[in-house]
Amino acid sequence: MRQVILCKYGEIVLKGLNRSRFEADLIKNVRRRLKPLGEFRLDSRQSTLFVEPMSEDIDYDETIDRLKKVYGIAKICPAFATEKSLDAIYATARECLGDELQSAKTFKVVAKRADKRFPLDSMQIMSELGGMILEGYPGISVDVKNPELTVICEIRDDAAYVHGTPIEGAGGIPVGTSGRALLLLSGGIDSPVAGAMMAKRGVIISAIHFQSPPYTSERALIKVERLAAKMTEHCGQITLFTVPFTEIQEAIRDNCPEELFTLIMRRLMMEIAQRVAEGYGFQALVTGESIGQVASQTMSALVTTDAVCRIPVFRPCICLDKKEIVDISYKIGTFDISIEPYEDCCTVFTPKHPKTQPTLDEVQKAQAMFDFEPLIEKAVNGISSKTFKAYTDYDF
Ligand code: ATP
Ligand code: MG
Description:
The chain is α/β, with parallel strands linked by helices. Helix content is 39%, strand content 21%.
C-alpha cells in the first residue's frame, strides 16, 4: 500500500492542442513548491497529477497544504494505492479510512473504473464494496444523497486508489501559461488579492512599490516585502521593484492644485510602472482598484488615470465589495500582514477634499503646470529590485 496524492486538473482538461504545455507548467510549479520538502515522483496521467512522496519522513500535511495553493489543481485526493482486487481495496479502505468508518453514521461508495479490464463495472464495485463495509462496520448505514463519509475507489491502469472526500484545490490555470504582468503593490488589502487573482489565471506576477521616505518608514517597505514573500506561495517567484517616489510627491504638493494631488500622483505611478513594464517585457499592469471605493477610484477618476496608459491595465477587484476582497485575502494568507498599521505613500499629502468627478482636461492641465519628466527619469533610474522565491522564509 503506497500513499499517493491525486491532484485532479481543473480547466486544463478543457484545453485542446496545447494541453500538454499547461500540464508541463503545472508539473514544473508543483516540483518547485515541493522540492524543499523532499523527493517526490510526479506523473501526469488521465487528467490527474500523481504526487508520490519517495521517503517516509516527508511532511505529508505540509505537502498537501502546498498543493492546495498551486493554481491549476481543482481537487486534491490524499489516496492509498493498492492491488486491483476487492479484498485489497476493502483492506485499504479499512486501513486509511477506518476511524471515519467507525465514527460516521452514514456513507456511500463512489467507484470510477478507468481500467475497463477490471471485471466489475462501477455499479458492481459500489455495491460489493458497500456490502463489505456494511458487514465490517455495523454502526454505519448507506445514504447516497447526503452521506457523512464518501469512500472513493478509482480503478486505474496501474493500481486501485482509495480515498475519502476530495479536498478543494486552488482552481484556475497554472502560473506561467498566460504571460507576465506588473502589479502595483501597496501595503493594503486589495493589491495582493489582485495579484493572486491574476496568478490564478496563469499570469506570472512581478510587483512594483512606490515609497516616499522619510514620509513612509523602513517598516512600511518591509511590510510590502513580506506581502510579496507571502504571495509567492500562490504566485511562485515574485520580483519586487521599489521606486523612490519622494521627490515626485513633493513636486506635486508644491506645484499642483491640492484637490487633484492623488490623481496626478496615480498618473505618475502608472507612467513609471509602464516604463518598467516596457523595459522588462511585462505585457500589462495590475492594480487593486475597486470602482467607487475611494475618491481616486470613481469612474471619472479611473478615466483620468487610464489616459496615461499605453498598455492594458487589469483591475481584478474592480467589481468586488470590500468584504469579498477581504475574504480572498484571508484565503491567500495576506490579510494579517495587510492590516498592520504602516503608512503608504498614498496616505501622505492627501487632499482634504479630493475631486471625485474630475475631467481629463483639467487633470492634464494641472499636471502640465510642472515638468515631471526629469523627476520621472530620476525615479526610474533609482529603482532597486529584490526577488522572492516560492515560500521565501522571511524574518525581515
Ligand atoms: P490597497 O488596499 O491595495 O492599498 P487601496 O484601497 O488602499 O488599495 P489606493 O491606496 O487608492 O487603494 O490604491 C489603489 C491601488 O493603487 C492599489 O490597489 C495598488 O494597486 C496601487 N497602489 C497604491 N499605493 C501604492 C504604492 N505605494 N505602490 C504601488 N502601488 C500602489
Ligand atoms: Mg492602499
